Predict the structure.
Amino acid sequence: MTDVAPYHVPLAVPMMPLYGYDNCEDASKDFGYMKHLYPEKAKKMMVLIEEECDKLEYDGSCMFDEYPDRVYLGKLVDKIYNNLNSVKESSLPDNSSYDNSATGYDNWMRDMTEVLLYNEMLERRKRYRGRKRWF
């Protein structure tokens, strides 16, 4: 009788598929398609978000820390949000008496920026970990 240890599985075969995908390429393709379906304003926001994430995509970056620093991420969100003038202006209704501070509209836009940034970082972290060698 021979005992077969579970760690003798070839590395090319995942022991548990990633969210039902057979490989990372399928997951990446699906993620790209879903980003393509974003509303136009979100796509404009994603341009700036992707530029900032491109700057952070290197070994040792805080983006790939086990627990990224919340204060640093907040500053990054503020930086991106402050550069979103064209999106913010196109989002305002034609009513000239519209008051941003009273309705919390600016907070909503900043929150949306933060969610999109974290989502993009999550995808890049997953891709980065998939490229790392296991030995």
Notes: The radius of gyration is 20 Å. Residues 40-91+102-128 form one domain. The chain has six helices and no strands. The mean pLDDT is 77.
